[in-house]
């Protein structure tokens, strides 16, 4: 009997070792799409260039439209970049209004941009924020709404947890959409997510097979998953639902034009460090990593902002051109370079960040097994025993759904957004590469510490 038990135990260990090895080995398919690794010399050169010869982003920002702007979620990474670009191109500060639960930085407010504390899950709060009187000199300008607010819970995958992010990401989006219509807005652009296209890859698979969906190329022609369990997690489920509602609201007969931008995959940039991939790493001084082999496309918040402004420009121009009507669509956007490996980012951070950084490599399987225990406890606490203490912080994120996005190799293809307006694209040319953008963010961090 003990021999059978020993054999079974050995077989389980061998299987766990095999799963760990497969997931932590970069597939050749992904390596072909990202063959170059950042060197220390390349990193140091880019870091110096980010200060001495930064890219002039203003050349990529569409011209002034002379409109009013409501930016929902305007203190986040993308929203903050949109505000900066609106001011950069000469829009009147008094014609810009931020709706958010957090106040923007004082330098934005000091320029004359308005801020209204708003909980978008409250229909009345949103209506009040939209109907708040505008300064007399801009009150009659046409209105554009940029909707960037979202709750990101990458670890949740169970249907029982949907209310934790659906309230903001779906109900909040509907409240903003309805308020925009009532306020007479003619353009509504929302930040969706490239993750709506991702399919969950299995953490457990037969020893003689490779897991499906380990490498995924995200582009506009990818068919979205149809079943809840096919999405990587709840965040993608609710973002897909909100995107469908917003895109379906596009209506030429009432001149209410809508569309969505899908950033692929992790967003980073100067501003809200809690929402930035690199910013979080710098705040925590690194972390143990089981994703060092993973290849991802990343996108700078300024590149995402430019895509929003280009989409607005295309929708406003459409009535006076013979170009294809692209209202009610979604466009994937990413940085203008091949995807990078997480180890590239770790090398970058350890090379030029002035605060301590460390990314010890750890096996994934112990964390996968732990994630099931955390998910089970979280389910029990949330559904049946709310008096139990909640798991909070990074540990709460460690649930099985996290690995379906963190350990999939996700490559963004924004070729459709880069097509010319005559071809039905945005004419999107992202000015900031991943290496330059992350160097700019690190330099800002170094200057602040």
Automatic annotation (TrEMBL):
Task: Provide the alphabetized UniProt keywords.
Answer: Oxidoreductase
- In what residue span(s) does the 3-beta hydroxysteroid dehydrogenase/isomerase domain sit? 70-350
Give the GO terms filed under biological process for this record. Answer: steroid biosynthetic process
- What superkingdom does the record give? Eukaryota
Q: Which InterPro entries does the annotation name?
A: 3Beta_OHSteriod_DH/Estase, Lipid_A_modif_metabolic_enz, NAD(P)-bd_dom_sf
UniProt keyword annotation of Transmembrane present: no
Q: Tell me the Pfam families matching this sequence.
A: 3Beta_HSD (PF01073)
Question: Does the keyword section mention Oxidoreductase?
Answer: yes
| One GO molecular-function entry | oxidoreductase activity, acting on the CH-OH group of donors, NAD or NADP as acceptor
Spell out the family assignment given in the record's similarity comment: Belongs to the 3-beta-HSD family.
Q: Which PANTHER family does the UniProt entry name for this protein?
A: BIFUNCTIONAL POLYMYXIN RESISTANCE PROTEIN ARNA, SHORT CHAIN DEHYDROGENASE_REDUCTASE FAMILY 42E, MEMBER 2
Task: Give the protein name, as stated in the record.
Answer: 3-beta hydroxysteroid dehydrogenase/isomerase domain-containing protein
The record lists the organism as: Aspergillus avenaceus
